Amino acid sequence: MVTNNFKNYLWVIPFLSFLLGYFTVQKIFQPKSFNTPAIVGKKLQEAISILSKNQLNIKFIMEKEDSNLPHGTILSQKPIPGLKITPNQSVYVTISKKPDRLMCPELFNKKMDNIAQILKSKNLKNKSYYIPSNLPENSCVAQYPLPDFSVKDTCIITYVSKGHKKPVIFPNFKNKNLNSVLDFLKNHNIKSEIIYSDDPVSSKRKLKKIKTNQEISKQETNPTDQEAQNSQIMQTQTNLEQETKASPETQDQSMQTLESQMQNGQDMQTSQTQNVQTEPEINQENINTTEIQETPDLTILDQRPLAGSLVNLNPDKPITVHLKVFRNKSF
Fold it and tell me: How far, in Å, CA of 272 to CA of 157, rounded?
């Protein structure tokens, strides 16, 4: 009876033998386990070298951006250092990577409050230096790096205006074009009020007079020529006195010469007198004729403050410049 029951369980013996042999072989030939090496904080190439010497594999879980660490630095590992591990097993790691290159934003002429918001949204730091400037107080005068250049170490240097309260000499805007003056005033935070005028003469413009009697002055007798003629006649009379003791023929010739020179002088004076008397009468309107210089449209005729005045350019309280501008009605 017992024998029959034993025969019924003989089919279990092969399975038990297989399991016993398997565990026996595994116990004998199983590789020895060891502690997982620590690779956190090491560069990727160094970590691969350490795991290869221990016959371990490496697998990447993810990458995290970190601008303060070199690219490929091991941030975490599984299994953690110290746990038992056997050869040919895998270690799962998380590595660092550099964020995308940051481009420096445009900060020029912006207020510090606005600059702080812009840099905070881009995870950038700011280091400011205050310098004297004519630009509004607490506004950016210059920056490094320049706009659209890459930022190193996530830090930007800004130069900020602390105002300029020293008086300055106000420039002269007269006879300048209105548009160029307005651009100048805008750059220096100066307001302007404009009064237009269509009469440049009333603004004390200089008129260029043209004399129309130049031809008359050219026809007048040259005093130098008249003096030379009189001198020649006097010299001839002196020679005549010296020749009184000469022969009668010589005296006759000298008298004839003197009469001829005097006659020529009288003829010249008569001719000049006739030219002046026969000159046509010139219209008085032509003598007083003036030519007005053409004034370009939108030319500044007057200004307040006057040129050369000392003014304080306070960014918080900008001054107002009053300009009188010529505007041609024909335009």
Answer: 87
pTM: 0.33
What tokens were used for 2? 């017992």
**Cβ–Cβ under 8 Å, residues 318 and 298:** no
pLDDT tens-place string over residues 200-222: 654 444 433 333 444 444 444 44
| 146: exposed, middle or buried (Cβ count in 10 Å: 0-12, 13-18, 19+) | exposed
For residues 105 and 228, the model is more confident at: 105
Pinpoint the alpha helices (H) of the chain: 2-8, 13-29, 44-53, 112-121, 178-187, 214-219, 223-242, 248-278, 284-287
Residue 308's CATH number: 3.30.10.20
| Residue 212: inside a domain | no
Which residues are 127's β-sheet partners? 157
Please say whether the beta carbons of 130 and 138 come within 8 A.
no
User: In the structure encoding, which two tokens stand for residue 116, read together?
Assistant: 């702080």
CA distance 179 to 56: 77
Tell me the pairing of strands 125-131 and 155-161.
parallel
Number of separate domains in the chain: 3
Asked whether 118 and 72 are in contact (CB, 8 A), the reply is: no
Residues 317 and 171 occupy one common structural domain: yes
Domain ends where: 46, 70, 97?
Answer: 97
Last-in-domain residue among 43, 66, 97: 97
pLDDT tens digits, one per residue of 42-63: 999 999 999 999 889 999 999 9
Determine the angle formed by the axes of helices 248-278 and 223-242, rounding to 10 degrees. 160
Range of the domain at 125: 112-161
